[in-house]
Target: Pentacotripeptide-repeat region of PRORP domain-containing protein
Amino acid sequence: MFQPAPLWDRVSFCRGPTCYAACRPPRCIARAEFGSSRQTAKRGKRQLDGQSDKGSARQDRKGAGGSNREMEALVGQLTRQKTASGIAEAVARLRDGGHLRKVHEYTSVVVTWCRAQCWHEACEVLREMRSLNLKPKPVAYNNAMNACLKAKEWETALGLMGEMKLSSSVPDVFSYSAAIGACGRVGQWLGALSLLGDMQDQELAPDIWTYNAAVIACEKGSQWEWALKLVARMRQADLEPDDITYRAACRAFERGEQQLRELRLRVTNSLAKAIDLRSAEGVEQQKAMPVKAPFADCSLHFCIFQLDEQGLGGWSLEAGGKNGRWDTLLLGLLQCLMMDGQWLQNVCASAFVGPDAIHVSGDVQGLVMRSLGQGSDGKDFYQPATVKAWEETLWSARGQDSKGLSWQTATEQPESKYEARATLLTRLDEMLEQLPADGGARVLAFAASGDTTYDELKARGVGRQPYKGRLFVLLGGAHGFDGDDDRDGGAFFDAVLGRFAARFGPTSVARVNLCEPGAPKSKGKAAVFPLSKVAGFVSVEHARGALASAVSGIQATGEGS
Model:
Protein backbone atom coordinates (compact mmCIF):
# COMPACT_ATOMS: atom_id res chain seq x y z
CA MET A 1 0.00 0.00 0.00
CA PHE A 2 1.22 3.42 -0.90
CA GLN A 3 2.31 5.51 2.11
CA PRO A 4 2.74 9.22 1.34
CA ALA A 5 5.85 10.80 2.67
CA PRO A 6 5.62 13.67 5.17
CA LEU A 7 4.81 17.05 3.78
CA TRP A 8 8.28 18.50 4.15
CA ASP A 9 9.83 15.45 2.43
CA ARG A 10 7.42 15.59 -0.46
CA VAL A 11 7.88 19.28 -1.00
CA SER A 12 11.60 18.91 -1.11
CA PHE A 13 11.41 15.73 -3.20
CA CYS A 14 8.99 17.01 -5.74
CA ARG A 15 11.14 20.02 -6.46
CA GLY A 16 13.37 17.72 -8.50
CA PRO A 17 12.08 17.81 -12.11
CA THR A 18 13.49 14.42 -13.09
CA CYS A 19 11.54 12.45 -10.51
CA TYR A 20 8.34 14.48 -10.66
CA ALA A 21 6.29 11.88 -12.64
CA ALA A 22 7.32 8.82 -10.70
CA CYS A 23 6.67 10.38 -7.33
CA ARG A 24 3.52 12.23 -8.21
CA PRO A 25 0.65 11.08 -5.93
CA PRO A 26 -2.86 10.45 -7.17
CA ARG A 27 -4.91 13.52 -8.20
CA CYS A 28 -7.28 13.26 -5.27
CA ILE A 29 -4.50 13.14 -2.77
CA ALA A 30 -2.72 16.00 -4.45
CA ARG A 31 -5.85 18.16 -4.35
CA ALA A 32 -6.52 17.30 -0.75
CA GLU A 33 -3.02 18.05 0.46
CA PHE A 34 -1.91 20.89 -1.79
CA GLY A 35 -5.02 22.33 -3.36
CA SER A 36 -5.01 23.52 -6.91
CA SER A 37 -1.91 24.58 -8.61
CA ARG A 38 -3.25 28.16 -8.89
CA GLN A 39 -3.82 28.36 -5.16
CA THR A 40 -0.38 26.93 -4.57
CA ALA A 41 1.16 29.63 -6.77
CA LYS A 42 -0.71 32.37 -4.97
CA ARG A 43 0.31 31.02 -1.57
CA GLY A 44 3.95 30.84 -2.63
CA LYS A 45 3.84 34.37 -3.96
CA ARG A 46 2.37 35.66 -0.72
CA GLN A 47 5.08 33.92 1.25
CA LEU A 48 7.79 35.37 -0.93
CA ASP A 49 6.25 38.85 -0.73
CA GLY A 50 6.08 38.64 3.07
CA GLN A 51 9.70 37.64 3.29
CA SER A 52 10.60 40.51 0.99
CA ASP A 53 8.66 43.05 3.13
CA LYS A 54 10.33 41.87 6.33
CA GLY A 55 13.71 42.09 4.69
CA SER A 56 13.01 45.61 3.50
CA ALA A 57 11.92 46.64 7.00
CA ARG A 58 15.08 45.19 8.46
CA GLN A 59 17.12 47.08 5.87
CA ASP A 60 15.25 50.33 6.68
CA ARG A 61 15.86 49.92 10.38
CA LYS A 62 19.48 49.20 9.72
CA GLY A 63 19.75 52.33 7.55
CA ALA A 64 17.92 54.44 10.14
CA GLY A 65 20.26 53.24 12.85
CA GLY A 66 23.22 54.28 10.79
CA SER A 67 21.62 57.66 10.12
CA ASN A 68 21.00 58.25 13.85
CA ARG A 69 24.54 57.37 14.69
CA GLU A 70 25.75 59.78 12.02
CA MET A 71 23.52 62.55 13.39
CA GLU A 72 24.72 61.95 16.95
CA ALA A 73 28.31 62.13 15.78
CA LEU A 74 27.68 65.42 13.95
CA VAL A 75 25.86 66.93 16.94
CA GLY A 76 28.75 65.86 19.16
CA GLN A 77 31.17 67.62 16.84
CA LEU A 78 28.94 70.70 16.94
CA THR A 79 28.80 70.95 20.73
CA ARG A 80 32.58 70.63 20.99
CA GLN A 81 33.17 73.69 18.81
CA LYS A 82 34.18 76.91 20.57
CA THR A 83 34.80 79.31 17.70
CA ALA A 84 32.25 80.89 15.39
CA SER A 85 33.91 79.45 12.29
CA GLY A 86 33.98 75.95 13.77
CA ILE A 87 30.31 76.14 14.74
CA ALA A 88 29.35 77.38 11.27
CA GLU A 89 31.16 74.44 9.63
CA ALA A 90 29.51 71.94 12.00
CA VAL A 91 26.06 73.39 11.28
CA ALA A 92 26.74 73.18 7.54
CA ARG A 93 27.59 69.48 7.88
CA LEU A 94 24.34 68.91 9.73
CA ARG A 95 22.38 70.61 6.95
CA ASP A 96 24.19 68.71 4.18
CA GLY A 97 23.44 65.42 5.90
CA GLY A 98 19.77 66.30 6.31
CA HIS A 99 20.01 66.17 10.09
CA LEU A 100 18.72 69.67 10.85
CA ARG A 101 14.97 69.12 10.76
CA LYS A 102 13.65 68.58 14.28
CA VAL A 103 13.24 70.86 17.30
CA HIS A 104 15.89 69.21 19.45
CA GLU A 105 18.42 69.41 16.61
CA TYR A 106 17.82 73.16 16.22
CA THR A 107 17.96 73.57 20.00
CA SER A 108 21.46 72.08 20.05
CA VAL A 109 22.52 74.62 17.44
CA VAL A 110 21.03 77.54 19.41
CA VAL A 111 22.70 76.47 22.66
CA THR A 112 26.06 76.05 20.93
CA TRP A 113 25.89 79.52 19.38
CA CYS A 114 24.99 80.99 22.77
CA ARG A 115 27.91 79.30 24.50
CA ALA A 116 30.20 81.04 22.00
CA GLN A 117 28.49 84.38 22.84
CA CYS A 118 27.17 84.61 19.26
CA TRP A 119 23.75 86.04 20.16
CA HIS A 120 22.96 87.23 16.63
CA GLU A 121 23.46 83.78 15.09
CA ALA A 122 21.37 82.19 17.85
CA CYS A 123 18.51 84.59 17.14
CA GLU A 124 18.75 83.80 13.43
CA VAL A 125 18.34 80.09 14.17
CA LEU A 126 15.24 80.85 16.25
CA ARG A 127 13.78 82.83 13.35
CA GLU A 128 14.47 79.92 11.02
CA MET A 129 12.64 77.58 13.41
CA ARG A 130 9.58 79.83 13.46
CA SER A 131 9.58 80.09 9.66
CA LEU A 132 9.49 76.28 9.50
CA ASN A 133 6.61 76.17 12.02
CA LEU A 134 8.89 74.58 14.61
CA LYS A 135 8.17 75.70 18.16
CA PRO A 136 11.40 76.51 20.07
CA LYS A 137 11.65 75.18 23.58
CA PRO A 138 12.10 77.51 26.58
CA VAL A 139 15.70 76.34 26.96
CA ALA A 140 16.49 77.75 23.51
CA TYR A 141 14.94 81.12 24.35
CA ASN A 142 16.63 81.23 27.77
CA ASN A 143 20.07 80.62 26.30
CA ALA A 144 19.48 83.23 23.60
CA MET A 145 18.33 85.85 26.12
CA ASN A 146 21.31 85.12 28.35
CA ALA A 147 23.66 85.61 25.40
CA CYS A 148 21.94 88.90 24.57
CA LEU A 149 22.35 90.10 28.15
CA LYS A 150 26.07 89.35 28.12
CA ALA A 151 26.38 91.26 24.85
CA LYS A 152 24.38 94.19 26.31
CA GLU A 153 21.65 93.68 23.72
CA TRP A 154 18.88 94.50 26.17
CA GLU A 155 16.19 95.30 23.59
CA THR A 156 16.80 92.04 21.74
CA ALA A 157 16.44 90.06 24.97
CA LEU A 158 13.11 91.75 25.70
CA GLY A 159 12.00 91.01 22.14
CA LEU A 160 12.70 87.32 22.66
CA MET A 161 10.58 87.38 25.80
CA GLY A 162 7.73 88.87 23.81
CA GLU A 163 8.06 86.12 21.21
CA MET A 164 7.88 83.48 23.92
CA LYS A 165 4.62 84.93 25.21
CA LEU A 166 3.11 84.99 21.71
CA SER A 167 4.18 81.44 20.94
CA SER A 168 3.26 78.26 22.78
CA SER A 169 6.63 78.30 24.60
CA VAL A 170 5.81 78.92 28.26
CA PRO A 171 8.41 81.15 29.99
CA ASP A 172 9.95 79.75 33.15
CA VAL A 173 11.77 81.37 36.07
CA PHE A 174 15.00 81.67 34.09
CA SER A 175 13.17 83.40 31.24
CA TYR A 176 11.63 85.97 33.55
CA SER A 177 14.91 86.58 35.39
CA ALA A 178 16.68 87.33 32.12
CA ALA A 179 13.88 89.60 30.88
CA ILE A 180 13.71 91.51 34.19
CA GLY A 181 17.48 91.96 34.09
CA ALA A 182 17.17 93.42 30.60
CA CYS A 183 14.47 95.82 31.82
CA GLY A 184 16.82 97.06 34.51
CA ARG A 185 19.57 97.72 32.00
CA VAL A 186 17.36 99.90 29.81
CA GLY A 187 15.76 101.68 32.77
CA GLN A 188 12.31 100.11 32.39
CA TRP A 189 11.58 99.55 36.06
CA LEU A 190 7.84 99.45 35.38
CA GLY A 191 8.39 96.66 32.86
CA ALA A 192 10.41 94.71 35.43
CA LEU A 193 7.63 94.99 38.01
CA SER A 194 5.07 93.99 35.39
CA LEU A 195 7.01 90.84 34.54
CA LEU A 196 7.27 90.05 38.24
CA GLY A 197 3.49 90.30 38.45
CA ASP A 198 3.12 87.98 35.45
CA MET A 199 5.14 85.35 37.28
CA GLN A 200 2.72 85.43 40.17
CA ASP A 201 -0.25 85.12 37.77
CA GLN A 202 1.36 81.99 36.32
CA GLU A 203 2.12 80.67 39.82
CA LEU A 204 5.87 80.82 39.24
CA ALA A 205 7.91 81.48 42.40
CA PRO A 206 10.64 84.09 41.77
CA ASP A 207 14.06 83.11 43.10
CA ILE A 208 16.70 85.40 44.55
CA TRP A 209 18.16 86.10 41.10
CA THR A 210 14.77 87.30 39.86
CA TYR A 211 14.29 89.58 42.84
CA ASN A 212 17.82 90.97 42.52
CA ALA A 213 17.20 91.80 38.88
CA ALA A 214 14.00 93.62 39.85
CA VAL A 215 15.73 95.55 42.66
CA ILE A 216 18.50 96.60 40.25
CA ALA A 217 15.85 97.78 37.79
CA CYS A 218 14.29 99.93 40.53
CA GLU A 219 17.74 101.23 41.43
CA LYS A 220 18.36 102.32 37.84
CA GLY A 221 15.03 104.12 37.88
CA SER A 222 15.71 105.79 41.26
CA GLN A 223 12.66 104.00 42.71
CA TRP A 224 13.90 103.47 46.24
CA GLU A 225 10.39 102.84 47.61
CA TRP A 226 9.80 99.92 45.25
CA ALA A 227 13.28 98.59 45.99
CA LEU A 228 12.40 98.56 49.68
CA LYS A 229 9.10 96.79 48.98
CA LEU A 230 10.87 94.10 46.94
CA VAL A 231 13.33 93.46 49.76
CA ALA A 232 10.38 93.05 52.16
CA ARG A 233 8.66 90.69 49.71
CA MET A 234 11.81 88.58 49.50
CA ARG A 235 11.72 88.07 53.24
CA GLN A 236 8.06 87.12 53.06
CA ALA A 237 8.99 84.45 50.50
CA ASP A 238 11.65 83.06 52.89
CA LEU A 239 14.44 84.35 50.65
CA GLU A 240 17.39 85.98 52.41
CA PRO A 241 18.64 89.11 50.59
CA ASP A 242 22.32 88.88 49.68
CA ASP A 243 25.07 91.41 49.08
CA ILE A 244 23.79 92.19 45.57
CA THR A 245 20.35 92.98 46.96
CA TYR A 246 21.59 95.34 49.64
CA ARG A 247 24.02 97.13 47.37
CA ALA A 248 21.34 97.75 44.74
CA ALA A 249 18.90 98.94 47.40
CA CYS A 250 21.49 101.33 48.86
CA ARG A 251 22.18 102.76 45.41
CA ALA A 252 18.45 103.25 44.93
CA PHE A 253 18.30 105.19 48.22
CA GLU A 254 21.25 107.32 47.14
CA ARG A 255 19.62 108.12 43.79
CA GLY A 256 16.39 109.04 45.53
CA GLU A 257 18.28 111.25 47.96
CA GLN A 258 20.06 112.89 45.04
CA GLN A 259 16.74 113.77 43.43
CA LEU A 260 15.53 115.30 46.69
CA ARG A 261 18.77 117.27 47.04
CA GLU A 262 18.47 118.70 43.54
CA LEU A 263 14.83 119.58 44.11
CA ARG A 264 15.63 121.23 47.43
CA LEU A 265 18.48 123.19 45.83
CA ARG A 266 16.18 124.48 43.09
CA VAL A 267 13.57 125.55 45.63
CA THR A 268 16.16 127.13 47.94
CA ASN A 269 17.80 129.03 45.10
CA SER A 270 14.43 130.31 43.91
CA LEU A 271 13.57 131.52 47.40
CA ALA A 272 16.99 133.10 47.82
CA LYS A 273 16.60 134.98 44.55
CA ALA A 274 13.17 136.18 45.60
CA ILE A 275 14.39 137.33 49.01
CA ASP A 276 17.57 138.94 47.68
CA LEU A 277 15.74 140.76 44.89
CA ARG A 278 17.17 144.24 44.62
CA SER A 279 16.25 147.31 42.70
CA ALA A 280 17.81 147.90 39.30
CA GLU A 281 19.92 150.70 40.73
CA GLY A 282 21.26 148.49 43.49
CA VAL A 283 22.15 145.78 41.01
CA GLU A 284 24.04 148.22 38.83
CA GLN A 285 25.97 149.49 41.83
CA GLN A 286 26.87 145.94 42.78
CA LYS A 287 28.12 145.25 39.25
CA ALA A 288 30.25 148.35 39.34
CA MET A 289 31.94 147.22 42.55
CA PRO A 290 34.22 144.23 41.87
CA VAL A 291 34.20 141.42 44.37
CA LYS A 292 37.28 141.48 46.52
CA ALA A 293 39.48 138.40 46.21
CA PRO A 294 39.13 136.16 49.30
CA PHE A 295 42.90 135.90 49.66
CA ALA A 296 43.60 139.65 49.58
CA ASP A 297 43.96 140.27 53.32
CA CYS A 298 44.45 136.82 54.82
CA SER A 299 47.38 135.94 57.04
CA LEU A 300 47.08 132.16 56.56
CA HIS A 301 46.56 130.89 53.04
CA PHE A 302 46.03 127.19 52.30
CA CYS A 303 46.86 126.18 48.73
CA ILE A 304 45.68 122.77 47.49
CA PHE A 305 47.00 121.44 44.18
CA GLN A 306 45.33 118.70 42.12
CA LEU A 307 46.71 118.02 38.64
CA ASP A 308 43.52 117.04 36.82
CA GLU A 309 42.64 117.76 33.19
CA GLN A 310 38.90 118.04 33.81
CA GLY A 311 39.06 120.75 36.44
CA LEU A 312 35.63 121.93 37.59
CA GLY A 313 34.13 119.91 34.73
CA GLY A 314 35.01 116.74 36.61
CA TRP A 315 32.86 117.73 39.59
CA SER A 316 29.43 116.20 39.80
CA LEU A 317 27.00 116.60 42.68
CA GLU A 318 25.85 113.01 42.20
CA ALA A 319 29.31 111.40 42.26
CA GLY A 320 31.94 113.89 43.32
CA GLY A 321 34.37 111.18 44.42
CA LYS A 322 34.16 109.36 41.12
CA ASN A 323 34.96 112.38 38.97
CA GLY A 324 38.22 114.10 39.78
CA ARG A 325 38.07 113.28 43.51
CA TRP A 326 36.14 116.45 44.23
CA ASP A 327 34.73 115.05 47.45
CA THR A 328 38.27 114.93 48.88
CA LEU A 329 39.09 118.43 47.65
CA LEU A 330 35.88 119.98 49.00
CA LEU A 331 36.33 118.31 52.37
CA GLY A 332 39.89 119.64 52.51
CA LEU A 333 38.68 123.18 51.79
CA LEU A 334 36.06 122.93 54.53
CA GLN A 335 38.61 121.70 57.09
CA CYS A 336 40.83 124.67 56.32
CA LEU A 337 38.16 127.16 57.48
CA MET A 338 35.55 125.55 59.70
CA MET A 339 35.51 126.08 63.46
CA ASP A 340 32.84 125.75 66.11
CA GLY A 341 31.04 129.07 66.22
CA GLN A 342 32.59 131.69 64.00
CA TRP A 343 34.89 130.40 61.31
CA LEU A 344 38.54 131.38 61.19
CA GLN A 345 39.03 134.98 60.14
CA ASN A 346 41.96 136.19 58.05
CA VAL A 347 42.22 132.63 56.74
CA CYS A 348 41.59 131.61 53.14
CA ALA A 349 42.01 128.52 51.02
CA SER A 350 42.57 127.99 47.29
CA ALA A 351 42.12 124.79 45.31
CA PHE A 352 44.02 124.73 42.03
CA VAL A 353 42.46 121.88 40.07
CA GLY A 354 43.96 121.59 36.61
CA PRO A 355 42.96 124.64 34.55
CA ASP A 356 40.48 125.95 37.15
CA ALA A 357 40.69 127.36 40.65
CA ILE A 358 38.36 128.17 43.53
CA HIS A 359 39.18 130.59 46.37
CA VAL A 360 37.28 130.75 49.67
CA SER A 361 37.67 132.53 52.99
CA GLY A 362 35.96 132.47 56.38
CA ASP A 363 33.38 134.94 55.09
CA VAL A 364 31.78 132.11 53.12
CA GLN A 365 30.25 130.90 56.40
CA GLY A 366 27.26 133.14 55.73
CA LEU A 367 26.46 131.23 52.55
CA VAL A 368 26.80 127.81 54.13
CA MET A 369 25.16 128.37 57.50
CA ARG A 370 22.00 130.14 56.40
CA SER A 371 19.39 131.19 58.91
CA LEU A 372 16.56 128.66 59.01
CA GLY A 373 14.30 130.63 61.34
CA GLN A 374 13.96 131.44 64.99
CA GLY A 375 13.51 129.14 67.93
CA SER A 376 11.09 129.47 70.84
CA ASP A 377 13.63 131.66 72.61
CA GLY A 378 13.65 134.13 69.73
CA LYS A 379 17.19 133.31 68.67
CA ASP A 380 18.11 132.44 65.11
CA PHE A 381 19.11 128.89 64.32
CA TYR A 382 21.26 128.09 61.33
CA GLN A 383 21.84 125.28 58.90
CA PRO A 384 24.63 123.01 60.21
CA ALA A 385 27.93 123.17 58.32
CA THR A 386 27.85 119.54 57.23
CA VAL A 387 29.87 118.21 54.32
CA LYS A 388 26.66 117.87 52.32
CA ALA A 389 25.61 121.47 53.05
CA TRP A 390 29.10 122.68 52.11
CA GLU A 391 29.06 120.79 48.83
CA GLU A 392 25.54 121.95 47.95
CA THR A 393 26.39 125.57 48.74
CA LEU A 394 29.39 125.60 46.42
CA TRP A 395 27.50 123.64 43.76
CA SER A 396 24.61 126.10 43.66
CA ALA A 397 27.05 129.06 43.60
CA ARG A 398 29.56 127.62 41.11
CA GLY A 399 30.87 130.19 38.67
CA GLN A 400 29.39 133.11 40.68
CA ASP A 401 31.68 135.26 42.80
CA SER A 402 30.35 136.45 46.14
CA LYS A 403 31.64 137.47 49.56
CA GLY A 404 34.24 134.92 50.61
CA LEU A 405 34.01 132.98 47.30
CA SER A 406 35.78 133.42 43.97
CA TRP A 407 36.04 131.21 40.86
CA GLN A 408 38.55 130.99 38.03
CA THR A 409 37.53 128.79 35.11
CA ALA A 410 39.28 128.05 31.83
CA THR A 411 37.56 128.96 28.58
CA GLU A 412 38.74 125.76 26.90
CA GLN A 413 39.34 122.25 28.17
CA PRO A 414 43.05 121.30 28.09
CA GLU A 415 43.93 118.50 25.72
CA SER A 416 46.48 116.81 27.99
CA LYS A 417 47.74 116.71 31.56
CA TYR A 418 50.81 118.72 30.52
CA GLU A 419 48.61 121.51 29.20
CA ALA A 420 46.52 121.40 32.40
CA ARG A 421 49.73 121.66 34.45
CA ALA A 422 50.87 124.73 32.50
CA THR A 423 47.50 126.41 33.06
CA LEU A 424 47.59 125.58 36.78
CA LEU A 425 51.02 127.14 37.19
CA THR A 426 49.81 130.23 35.31
CA ARG A 427 46.91 130.54 37.76
CA LEU A 428 49.39 130.33 40.62
CA ASP A 429 51.56 133.04 39.09
CA GLU A 430 48.52 135.31 38.71
CA MET A 431 47.64 134.87 42.37
CA LEU A 432 51.18 135.64 43.54
CA GLU A 433 51.29 138.74 41.37
CA GLN A 434 48.22 140.16 43.17
CA LEU A 435 50.07 140.19 46.49
CA PRO A 436 51.78 143.39 47.69
CA ALA A 437 55.15 143.80 46.01
CA ASP A 438 56.98 144.60 49.24
CA GLY A 439 55.27 141.92 51.29
CA GLY A 440 57.16 138.85 52.42
CA ALA A 441 55.79 135.44 53.28
CA ARG A 442 56.74 132.06 54.67
CA VAL A 443 55.82 128.78 52.97
CA LEU A 444 55.18 125.41 54.63
CA ALA A 445 54.94 122.59 52.08
CA PHE A 446 53.66 119.38 53.65
CA ALA A 447 54.88 116.19 51.98
CA ALA A 448 56.07 112.76 53.03
CA SER A 449 59.48 113.58 51.54
CA GLY A 450 59.91 116.71 53.66
CA ASP A 451 63.39 117.83 54.67
CA THR A 452 62.40 118.28 58.31
CA THR A 453 59.59 117.27 60.62
CA TYR A 454 56.96 119.64 61.90
CA ASP A 455 58.00 119.12 65.52
CA GLU A 456 61.66 119.85 64.68
CA LEU A 457 60.59 123.07 63.01
CA LYS A 458 58.57 124.11 66.06
CA ALA A 459 61.53 123.35 68.34
CA ARG A 460 63.79 125.63 66.27
CA GLY A 461 61.28 128.47 66.57
CA VAL A 462 60.98 128.35 70.36
CA GLY A 463 62.22 131.60 71.96
CA ARG A 464 62.22 133.53 68.70
CA GLN A 465 60.00 136.45 67.83
CA PRO A 466 56.70 135.09 66.49
CA TYR A 467 56.22 135.63 62.78
CA LYS A 468 53.29 137.93 62.01
CA GLY A 469 53.41 138.01 58.22
CA ARG A 470 51.60 135.96 55.59
CA LEU A 471 51.95 132.18 55.68
CA PHE A 472 51.26 129.80 52.81
CA VAL A 473 50.51 126.15 53.57
CA LEU A 474 50.90 123.98 50.49
CA LEU A 475 49.00 120.68 50.31
CA GLY A 476 48.63 118.06 47.61
CA GLY A 477 45.20 116.99 46.45
CA ALA A 478 43.86 113.44 46.63
CA HIS A 479 47.02 111.35 47.18
CA GLY A 480 49.05 114.27 45.85
CA PHE A 481 52.61 115.25 46.85
CA ASP A 482 54.28 111.86 47.28
CA GLY A 483 51.04 109.90 47.03
CA ASP A 484 49.98 107.48 44.33
CA ASP A 485 49.44 110.27 41.82
CA ASP A 486 52.99 111.67 42.05
CA ARG A 487 54.76 109.43 39.57
CA ASP A 488 56.83 112.13 37.89
CA GLY A 489 59.66 112.00 40.41
CA GLY A 490 58.38 115.10 42.20
CA ALA A 491 58.65 117.36 39.14
CA PHE A 492 55.22 118.89 39.68
CA PHE A 493 55.92 119.48 43.38
CA ASP A 494 59.26 121.12 42.54
CA ALA A 495 57.60 123.34 39.93
CA VAL A 496 55.05 124.58 42.50
CA LEU A 497 57.71 125.24 45.15
CA GLY A 498 59.85 126.97 42.54
CA ARG A 499 57.17 129.66 42.08
CA PHE A 500 57.09 130.44 45.80
CA ALA A 501 60.90 130.33 46.11
CA ALA A 502 61.24 132.80 43.23
CA ARG A 503 58.68 135.15 44.78
CA PHE A 504 59.74 135.05 48.46
CA GLY A 505 63.26 133.57 48.40
CA PRO A 506 64.50 129.98 48.88
CA THR A 507 65.04 130.44 52.63
CA SER A 508 61.35 131.24 53.09
CA VAL A 509 60.22 127.82 51.86
CA ALA A 510 60.36 124.66 54.00
CA ARG A 511 59.40 121.09 53.10
CA VAL A 512 57.76 119.61 56.17
CA ASN A 513 56.93 116.04 57.11
CA LEU A 514 54.40 115.31 59.85
CA CYS A 515 55.95 111.92 60.72
CA GLU A 516 58.74 111.54 63.24
CA PRO A 517 61.95 109.76 62.11
CA GLY A 518 61.18 106.68 64.22
CA ALA A 519 57.50 106.50 63.31
CA PRO A 520 56.21 103.01 62.37
CA LYS A 521 55.97 102.32 58.67
CA SER A 522 53.42 100.37 56.68
CA LYS A 523 54.88 98.14 53.96
CA GLY A 524 58.18 100.01 54.22
CA LYS A 525 56.60 103.43 53.65
CA ALA A 526 55.90 106.28 56.04
CA ALA A 527 52.29 107.22 56.68
CA VAL A 528 50.70 109.55 54.12
CA PHE A 529 47.91 111.54 55.76
CA PRO A 530 44.74 112.47 53.88
CA LEU A 531 44.32 116.04 52.76
CA SER A 532 41.47 116.80 55.17
CA LYS A 533 43.40 115.54 58.20
CA VAL A 534 46.44 117.70 57.45
CA ALA A 535 44.26 120.75 56.76
CA GLY A 536 42.33 120.26 59.99
CA PHE A 537 45.54 119.78 61.99
CA VAL A 538 47.14 122.96 60.66
CA SER A 539 43.98 125.03 61.21
CA VAL A 540 43.80 123.85 64.83
CA GLU A 541 47.50 124.67 65.31
CA HIS A 542 46.85 128.14 63.94
CA ALA A 543 43.78 128.67 66.13
CA ARG A 544 45.65 127.76 69.32
CA GLY A 545 48.74 129.83 68.41
CA ALA A 546 51.17 126.93 68.03
CA LEU A 547 51.72 127.43 64.31
CA ALA A 548 53.65 130.66 64.90
CA SER A 549 56.56 128.74 66.44
CA ALA A 550 56.85 126.51 63.38
CA VAL A 551 56.84 129.55 61.12
CA SER A 552 59.60 131.13 63.19
CA GLY A 553 61.50 127.87 62.79
CA ILE A 554 61.59 128.45 59.02
CA GLN A 555 63.62 131.60 59.54
CA ALA A 556 65.90 129.83 62.00
CA THR A 557 66.50 127.08 59.44
CA GLY A 558 67.37 129.67 56.81
CA GLU A 559 69.82 131.34 59.17
CA GLY A 560 71.50 128.02 59.90
CA SER A 561 70.71 128.05 63.63
User: Anything to note?
Assistant: The first helix runs from residue 7 to 14.
